[in-house]
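haha ok so turns out i had the wrong file open the whole time. this is the CORRECT one, sorry everyone. sequence first:
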Amino acid sequence: MTRRRGWLVRRLPVGMQEDRTMTGLVAILEEVGETVQQQADQIPFLADPSVTPEFLLSWLGRFVDAPGSENLPEAHRRDLLRETGSLILRKGTRDYIFTLIEPYLVGPIDLLEDGGVFREGESGRCEGIIVVRAAAIAHGSALDLYKLVRSITPVHCQIRIEIAGQTVAPVAA
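then structure:
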């Protein structure tokens, strides 16, 4: 996708748009930024997990921020990487977390988290607590699952993992 020329310069405040030095500098940044954005636009075509050799799947998992995917069987890894790549713009959301933990768990999965995007004054109480509940772990260990959730959530969050009604990973800050 190519953006219209001047897309970054038009974002400058009106007073700065009249400054030739400022607009010249921003135009240079825009040109460099355009090449970076073109590369980002091509990611769905460059990192296709269905054709990636198996030995590169771990690297691809780190690239699309799906850590720990090496604990999954190859077919599950490819599915997870495909789904994670399409969620890159929703990183940090409940959907993103659920997509990454789902292949590791068995049974109904309950993901409780109190985060979100709210209007000013309407947020309620956000304590940064994340609770994952499931019947069993299908792949990897409770520690692997804990490390996965820890790596994709903000550092201030407290995480608890409950499998078959028992807490298997401690609450950690």
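The first helix runs from residue 14 to 17.
again sry for the mixup
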